[in-house]
Write a structure and sequence with these properties.
Layout (H helix, E strand, L loop, with lengths): L7 H8 L5 H12 L9 H8 L3 H10 L5 H15 L3 H10 L6 H19 L2 H11 L6 E4 L5 H14 L3 E3 L7 H7 L5 E5 L6 H12 L3 E7 L11 E5 L11 H17 L1 H17 L13
Parallel strand pairs: 1-2, 1-3, 3-4, 4-5
Pfam families: HTH_6 (PF01418), SIS (PF01380)
Protein name: MurR/RpiR family transcriptional regulator
Keywords: DNA-binding, Transcription, Transcription regulation
């Protein structure tokens, strides 16, 4: 494949315009239920997409693979990456760990993650998402999973200072129907979904989109199933020399979006911050303690 750090779906999207009509039909089919839809035999994939077997062979070569076996090998590797548990990830890193200090190894990994994420980030996607988040005609909802729920809450906490009509949705899926009921056409749902993806997130996104809600997805390089429902998708590099995925780059994206919205609406945001500070001063619960002089 042209670049080892990129996924097969990245390559398909990058070269999509150069494909023939039949090859695009095949590409659409593969992306529809990626990566599982590409794991069958070459004959099965061709039949499912309604194209010929030679079309499959030609397309994978156009994508930069030597042949269908190499193409499928990459898909299998991606699938393994998305379902890796913390023990598997730790053992893989420990096996290849160099002798340098963990601080240096971690810093190198995070720096590379940030560099690679930024190189692939479309500024139009960023600006489009920031514009949606700053639009007061839309309500904004935030939701994350077991781990990423903390990032969703962090994002929400800042955005509720910047603008009204913000809601944090619990990661308990039993409460989601009530929130969907309150969503109006044009509202925005920000979803965090990192590998091992939660099927409930894809269901939430699908239902919300059917009701006219705009989805902003923050995921990893392999891409949550939510991506097919999202208008804007951010794919962060999360690999680190640890049993756990790194949230550094994901948090960077969140803070960059916060600043973009805040800067674009600074006069309004400043008024809200001033009013909030006044409320803090008026409330005994939040009043700043006074220092008493020692007698």
């Amino acid at each position: 494949m042209p670049t080892a750090a990129r996924t097969v779906s990245d390559v398909i999207r990058t070269r999509y315009d150069s494909l023939t009509r039949a090859e695009r039909q095949l590409a659409d089919r593969i992306l529809e239920n990626y990566p599982v839809s590409g794991l069958g035999s070459i004959t099965t994939i061709a039949e499912n997409a309604g194209v010929s077997t030679p079309t499959v062979a030609r397309m994978v070569q156009k994508l930069g693979f030597k042949g269908y076996p190499e193409f499928q090998s990459h898909l299998h590797h991606e699938l393994e990456e998305t379902i890796s548990n913390p023990i598997t990830k730790h053992d893989r890193w420990a096996l290849n760990a160099p002798g340098t200090h963990i601080l240096n190894r971690f810093a190198e990994a995070v720096t590379a993650n940030l560099r690679d994420t930024l190189s692939d980030l479309d500024t139009k996607t960023f600006e489009g998402a920031a514009a949606l988040l700053g639009d007061l005609d839309r309500s904004i909802y935030f939701v994350g999973g077991r781990i990423t729920g903390a990032l969703a809450e962090y994002f929400f906490t800042h955005m509720q200072v910047i603008r009204p009509r913000t809601t944090l949705i619990s990661n308990n899926s039993s409460s989601w129907p009530q929130h969907v009921l309150n969503m109006n056409r044009g509202d925005v749902l920000v979803i965090f979904d990192i590998r091992r993806y939660e099927q409930e997130m894809a269901t939430l996104a699908e239902v919300a989109r059917q009701n006219g809600v705009v989805i902003i997805l923050i995921t990893d390089i392999w891409g949550s199933p939510v991506a097919k429902h999202a208008q804007h998708t951010f794919r962060a590099r999360i690999e680190a020399p640890s049993a756990w995925d790194s949230s550094v780059v994901t948090l960077f994206l969140v803070e960059a979006l916060i600043e973009a919205v805040q800067s674009a609406t600074w006069d309004r945001t400043r008024e809200r911050m001033t009013s909030l500070e006044e409320l803090f001063e008026q409330s005994r619960l939040f009043r700043r303690p006074h220092r008493h002089k020692l007698e």
